[in-house]
Amino acid sequence: MTSTRMSSAITLTLTFTFLTLSLAKKGKIAVYWGQEGGDSGSEDTLSSTCEFGNYDIVLVSFLDTFGCGRTPSLNLHTHCGIHTCTPCTTLHTQIQHCQKNGVKVFLALGGPRGSYSLCSTGDAKVVSNYLYGNFLSGESGPLGSVVLDGIHLHIENGGSYLHWEDLLHELYKIKERGFTFYLSSAPLCFLPDRYLDRAIKTGYFDYIFIRFYNCPTCQYSSSSNASFLLDSWNAWSFYVSPNTSLLMGLPGAPDAALNGGYIPTQNFINDVLPYIQQTPSYGGVALWDRSRDVQTRFSNLIKPLVLDSTETMWSVISNSSCICM
C-alpha cells in the first residue's frame, strides 16, 4: 500500500514538473546601441555587437528629433552623424550583417534628450510615412538602403502625451498592408505610463520593454529587494494584450541608471528570473546599454537562463516541490 502511494506521489510530482516546464517560455535579450553609455567610449561597432552572440534584438538609438515640423535627425553619439564626420549611411552594411546573422535591428525613437513630440493626428501620419520611407522600405535613408525589423518608441522626453497612439495606429496600418516589422515600446514600470498608456491600450505592440530603473516605486533596491519590481511585473502582465511579450528592461551596470534599479546578477538569477519566466507574457530581458554590458558582461551571465528557461525552472521546482502522501 505504501509503495502504491509513493508511486502515485512520484507520478504527481513528475506530472507537475513537466507541466511547469511546459509553461516556461524561452526569452530574448535585447540591447540598446548607439549612445556609448553617455561618454564611456566603450561601445563597439554595430557589427561587433551583433557578432557578440548574446543579443536577439539590437535597438539603434536614437532618432531623437522629429514631429511638429522638425527635420528628423539621428543622434548616434560618436558612431556617426552630427557629432562626427561619418555619415550614418555607412551603417547599412553593418545592419545587413546583423540581419544575416539572425539579429533583428530596430530603430529607437525618442530617448532622454533631443527634441520630439507630435502635434496632431496628421503629424503622426507624416512621421509614420517618414519612418516607412526611410527605414522600412529599402529606399535610401539616413541609415542607407535598409529594411529594419522594427520601430521602437522610447518616449521619456516627449513634451506631451498626445498622439503617440496615433503614430502607432498609422504604423500598424502599414503592417496591415502586408509589410512585416515589429512594434515595441519602453514605458517606465510605474502604471500607467505618462506618455504611452493610450498607445499600449491599442494592443498593437509586439514587445514592451518595461524600464525597471530610474523609478524607485517599482524597481529593485537593496531595501525592498525584488518585491516592488515583481508587484509591478505582475500588474503589467495583466495590463497588456495577451499578444504582447514583456521584456524586463534593466541597467547593464550600477552607473547606467542615475536613480537606481541595477540588480546584481546573482540576485536577478535567484530572485527575479525564475518568477517572471512563469508569467505567460514573459519575453526576456532588455539591457541599457551595450557599452555597460561590455564592462560588466551582464548578458554573458544571464544568457543561458534567459534564453533557455529549463535550468532555471528545474531549480525552482527542486527547491519548492514536495511529495504528498
From TrEMBL:
Domain GH18 as annotated: residue spans: 27-309
Cellular-component GO terms for this entry: extracellular region
Cross-referenced SUPFAM superfamilies: (Trans)glycosidases
Keywords tagged on the record: Signal
PROSITE patterns: GH18_2 (PS51910)
Keyword Signal: yes
Signal peptide stretch: 1-24
Stored Pfam families: Glyco_hydro_18
Coiled-coil stretches noted in the UniProt entry, renumbered to this chain: none
Highest taxon in the source lineage: Eukaryota
GO biological process terms, semicolon-separated: carbohydrate metabolic process
InterPro entries registered for this protein in UniProt: Cts1-like, GH, Glyco_hydro18_cat, Glycosyl_Hydrlase18_Chitinase
GO molecular function, one term: chitinase activity
This protein's name: GH18 domain-containing protein
Upper lineage: Eukaryota, Viridiplantae, Streptophyta, Embryophyta, Tracheophyta
